[in-house]
Amino acid sequence: MTKKLVLIDGNSIAYRAFFALPLLNNDKGIHTNAVYGFTMMLMKILEDEKPSHMLVAFDAGKTTFRHQTFSEYKGGRQKTPSELSEQFPYIRELLKVYGISTYELENYEADDIIGTLTVQAEKEGFEIKVITGDKDLTQLSSPKTTIGITRKGITDIEEYTPEHIQEKYGLSPEQIIDMKGLMGDKSDNIPGVPSVGEKTAIKLLKEFHTVEELLSSIEKVSGAKLKEKLETYKDQAIMSKELATIMREAPIDVQLENIEYNGFDHEKLVGLFKELGFQSLLEKMGGDLQTEEPEVLEDIDFEIVEEVNESIFSDHNAFYVEVLDGNYHYSDIIGFSLVNDKGHFYIATDKALESPIFKTWAEDDSKKKVVYDAKRSEVSLRHHGIHLNGVTFDLLIASYLANPSETIEDVASIAKRYGFSSIQSDENFYGKGAKRKVPDSAELAQHLVRKALVLEDLEDKLESELKENQQLELYHDLELPLSIILADMESIGVKVDKDGLLAMGEELKGRLAQLEEKIYEAAGETFNINSPKQLGVILFEKLGLPVIKKTKTGYSTSADVLEKLESSHEIIEHILMYRQLGKLKSTYIDGLVKFIHPKTDKVHTIFNQALTQTGRLSSTDPNLQNIPIRLEEGRKIRKAFVPSEKDWLIFAADYSQIELRVLAHIAGDEKLISAFSEGMDIHTKTAMDVFHVSKEEVTSNMRRHAKAVNFGIVYGISDYGLSQSLKISRKEAGEFIDRYFASYPGVKEYIDEIVKDAKLKGYVSTLMHRRRYLPEITSRNFNLRSFAERTAMNTPIQGSAADIIKKAMVDMAERLKREGLQTRLLLQVHDELIFEAPPEEIEILKEIVPDVMENAIELKVPLKVDYAYGPTWYDSK
After folding, report:
1. Among candidates 661, 617, 659, 618, which has minimal Cα distance to 810?
2. Cα separation of 660 and 171, whole Å?
3. Where does residue 408 fall: left (phi above 0), alpha (psi -120 to 50 degrees), or beta otherwise?
4. For the ranges 98-102, 222-226, 259-263, 584-588, which has the lowest average pLDDT?
5. Contact status, residue 706 vs residue 683, Cβ threshold 8 Å
6. Were 160 and a residue from 8, 147, 218, 376 both cysteine, which residue would form a disulfide, CB within 3.0 to 4.6 Å?
7. CB 232: neighbour CB atoms within 10 A?
8. Cα dihedral sign for 454, 459, 464, 469?
9. What is the number of structural domains in the chain?
10. Are residues 146 and 34 in the same domain?
């Protein structure tokens, strides 16, 4: 069997992946584009090369033995963007899970590790493949060693063999070092000989073979100026060659027998892909993990209730409602369990729902109930005409507040966190996908009673934890009442004009057909526009547009590539619009139609109250917080959202720049406070301060730059991030950030202080004491620490804004009830509340909605609310 060694230049491939892909984030806000690109590269290498041995070499630090020769070696390189730095720990974790060895050596570069290993491997008869983005390594090419150089994109590789190097340059692999000695290398700050480029260097080496031979025969060189340069920079050429020479006897302690590749840990890799949000890669691997074998647990005593009577209920009850499907608006209850001082009980669905005694108890506010997910329980019971009153404790919300970074899958996931192992996960108990089933009543009863026992056991523990964290007020006065308000909103639902939505779909279908014709006309032929392969051939072969990036299957036609080509040909504009309208139709029109409930003709979204780490609500099935509004066609989708009562109106109110106002309050920056207090446009004011111009001199471009910094600054935006956002150089972006901090010293002080405080406490808090724990804030790993620092800056701002609108929702529900209004709260979309109301209540809403929202909390700056109303959601903007 052929022994095959694959060596990867880790830093080079990570950089290539980072700059080849647009910035991507997972749901925790961690940048993942470099990890994603690196993973794609690994998958391709493993599939194509099938290595028996493998290692990824990394640079150990900024200083190497070459700096002793030339202190300015690599001196011109810009600082690694923090968006890339934070991804290196994940790349290392990825390699660990893949079972691939890694190595770095103090004072040496990855190139030297690779060079030394190729010597060893060649002696032992290995076939060797080196993967890098650095052409310096082509000097290692030999009959046994092929150097794969990444080109544009991620997985497009050009293979350098001695024959290919001879064909491309007319040189041997060893002469690559001499070529670098003469022409230098800007990326590594190797000086070479001034004015000698690649063509001149190759021409000289074809005649003189090496730098040394050339310099000893300068008199034979034609051209007086070239002779003079070579004579003047003799020593520099020798030094440059030395710097470019890869060390092939580095003192490494890696043995080839210890870097065998034996495959990856499937379970851990799936777990890492889930954490990083790589859904497409999960699908490539065949989906999720296999379900573990259910753990055998000891039986517990309980009673199956044959007939509901008052004797099973008490004044304090742990009550569990089981709904198996994720979207409980379209599924039903499969059972109940009850634990109190009277015993442990299982109540079958039909026995409970048909009992007037059960209904009376459920709605009795004096009968205290400890539940898991009050919102889901309430909505599920409402389908049967029952309200759930008297909820004093919600395990889901309490656990979420205690530590929002912990993933909550079910009761078991919380129980295990607190040391309870007497309950199986729902995934293990019911199975997954096609294997999922509800067991017989005895088994089901055991499982549900165990859940109610966990509720009883954890109530006091979590109450104490919340009290210690000063979060009882947040829990009892905000989140718990909010859960019932959200249940109201979900149950009410939002009326959708299905015919109007379908008409929009038909209109978009017509627009897409027109665009198809324009695209075919511009291309000169028909083809499958949705096929990247066919589109690539049209754009880059037939029309001859410049190739920006290549993928494993051919030319990249991703949005970022097409946007760069937009000015090159009229076809690009049509393709981009075709894609946008196609997504609108499939996701936001056809998708919405699927969610219209057959009984209500409404969509009933689920508001996730215990998901995000900042405290913001999210919306699923369908996601009504994410309807695209940049395109007019996207905004028009909101026309389909109409009041559920004849002649009623949609009334929408949203906070103006709430996060920046919270920043002004928390940071206490006098200029920001003054600007908001005087009602100035904050982006214009920032532009005035940063550019030192008057209000009249602020251009639209200045304001745009100021806006980007205003919104990015507390997210820890870097010079690289800002440069990408504004399409300016990193230097310009860095100078802009520096001027911003000089203009708003209070903001700079806040950022510094919040990070110090987080390092001291291990967490940050919102104005209402919502916490986010940051264990990596004191990590020795720079990248993990940097990400935690940015999170520390942002969470108090975004989290406080989330708390404020939640408080406004609770206050608004109380105010509507007090005023005796028919108005209903339908949706919350981040900083916006959407109501439906009869026309005679609009004037009242114009008074009370801003009043409630602007007075939800007292800040050092005024909160400002804008509102609008009309016959549809579209008209209320």
Report:
1. 617
2. 60
3. beta
4. 222-226
5. yes
6. 147
7. 12
8. positive
9. 4
10. yes
CATH, residue 465: 3.30.420.10
620 is a domain residue: no
Amino acid 288: pLDDT: 46
In a domain, 842, yes or no: no
Q: Is 307 found in the same domain as 254?
A: no
> Which one-letter amino acid corresponds to residue 214?
L
Residue 837 near residue 651 (C-beta atoms within 8 A):
yes
pTM summary value: 0.71
In a domain, 74, yes or no: yes
Per-residue pLDDT tens over the stretch 99-128: 999 999 988 999 999 999 999 999 999 999
What is the rounded distance in angstroms from the CA atom of residue 605 to the CA atom of residue 621? Answer: 5
- Per residue, what are the HEC states of 348-373? CHHHHHCCHHHHHHHHCCCCEEEECC
pLDDT tens readout for residues 37-70: 999 999 989 988 999 999 999 998 777 888 777 8
Q: What is the dihedral of CA 462, 467, 473, 477, to 10 degrees?
A: 30
Asked if residue 496 lies in contact with residue 602, where contact means CB atoms within 8 angstroms, the answer is: yes
Q: How many CB atoms lie within 10 A of CB 746?
A: 18
Beta bridge partners of 620: 606
In the DSSP assignment, the letter for residue 695 is G
Domain with 160 in it: 4-169+247-259
DSSP string, 270-328: HHHHHHHT-HHHHHHTTSSPPPPPPPP------EEESS--GGG--SEEEEEEEE-SS-T
**552 falls within a domain:** yes
Q: What is the pLDDT of residues 420-441, one digit of tens each?
A: 878 999 988 998 877 889 999 9
Buried b (16+ CB within 10 A) or exposed e, 634-668: bebbbbbbbbbeeebbbbbbbbebbbbbbbbbbbe
**What is the DSSP-derived secondary structure letter of residue 159?**
E
Q: 716 with 578, same domain?
A: no
What confidence category does residue 552 fall into, taking pLDDT thresholds of 50, 70 and 90? Answer: low
What does the CA dihedral 232, 236, 238, 242 come to, rounded to 10 degrees?
Answer: -170
422 and 519 fall within a common domain: no
CA distance 687 to 702: 6
